[in-house]
Amino acid sequence: MQGLSWWRIARRMAWKIRGRRPLLTSSRRLTREERREVVTKIDELAPWFHNMNLGNDVWTNPTWEGSGPDYPKWRWELVQPMLPDVQGRKCLDIGCSSGFFALKLKELGAEYVLGIDQGEQEIAVKQARFAATCVRLDVDFDSMSVYDLAHAGKTFDIVLFLGVFYHLRHPLLALESIRKVCGHTLLIQTITTPHERPLHGSSPKYREDAGLKSAELNQPDFPMLRFVNGGLDGDRSCWFVPSPEAVLAMLNSSGFLPEEMIFPTNHEMIVRCSVK
Q1: 88 plus 16 within the same structural domain
Q2: Looking at 38, 71, 104, which one is the last position of a domain?
């Protein structure tokens, strides 16, 4: 593609993926001038982690760099069936990145949606606000740490916590902070240590006690966190990798009741929880 303009690359990529991926249903027809302005702004705010159509097949990540052309589409297809009815609900998207999931919650009829991000994706909130303006959806986006949620002065019926857990130095503190503002449902996605699980998991069982000198501490199903002292596949923002048992146990100890879980790959899980 050397020598092609940014816009020609975008058109070529959009043509390849047109009709293959669901769009934000709120995306609209843009005038020629609007389209030019949107393309310019997308370029100014690059790089984008979420590839989404903001109108007229104008994509936010047309060169497919980083997360690739099918993200967040493939994750949304996993998460959406696990969501409760969001109609009229207040929703929070933690680690919202470019805003796709928060915008989809609003499209599904949520009364109020707040997306927050901070740290690794410093420009994410600006991207999300711009995307919301393009598709004319009333969603709030703010630069905020998950640890500060208790001071936000809001509570939410549904909380999304996708792709953030393993980036945190203080995971239990984060879960306790989320519990203070979550009134009904939490959906969490995280990487895990390698496991052999069917796509859909069974109800979790928890170990209540353990002996320091007991053999169970070394059993494969004992909750375990692997600390990452450096980079994980080159990503130096990751601090630990939990086992599936550790994810469930940490949720349970923080006031959440895991109800449904899926294992899309052998190093990942998504859990839907209610509050205790």
Answers
A1: no
A2: 71
CA distance 64 to 61: 5
Rounded to whole angstroms, the Cα distance separating 244 from 89 reads: 29
Q: Are residues 18 and 135 in the same domain?
A: no
> Among candidates 53, 158, 156, 35, which has minimal Cα distance to 100?
53
Of the residues 46, 71, 96, which one is the last residue of a structural domain?
71
Q: What is the 3-state secondary structure (H, E, C) of the chain?
A: CCCCCHHHHHHHHHHHHCCCCCCCCCCCCCCHHHHHHHHHHHHHHCCCCCCCECCCCCECCCCCCCCCCCCCHHHHHHHHHHCCCCCCCEEEEECCCCCHHHHHHHHCCCCEEEEEECCCCCCHHHHHHHHHHHHCCCCEEEECCHHHHHHCCCCEEEEEEECCHHHCCCHHHHHHHHHHHEEEEEEEEEECCCCCCCCECCCCCCCCCCCCCCHHHHCCCCCCEEECCCCECCECCCCEEECHHHHHHHHHHCCEEEEEEECCCCCEEEEEEEEC
Distance CA 18, CA 41 (A): 21
What pTM was estimated for this model as a whole?
0.90
pLDDT in tens, 75-129: 999 999 999 999 999 999 999 999 999 999 999 999 999 999 997 667 999 999 9
Distance CA 58, CA 43 (A): 11
Domain that holds residue 227: 75-275
**Number of domains present in the structure of the chain:** 2
In whole angstroms, give the CA distance from residue 110 to residue 123. Answer: 25
Q: Which of 232, 91, 223, 231 is nearest to 162 (CA)?
A: 91
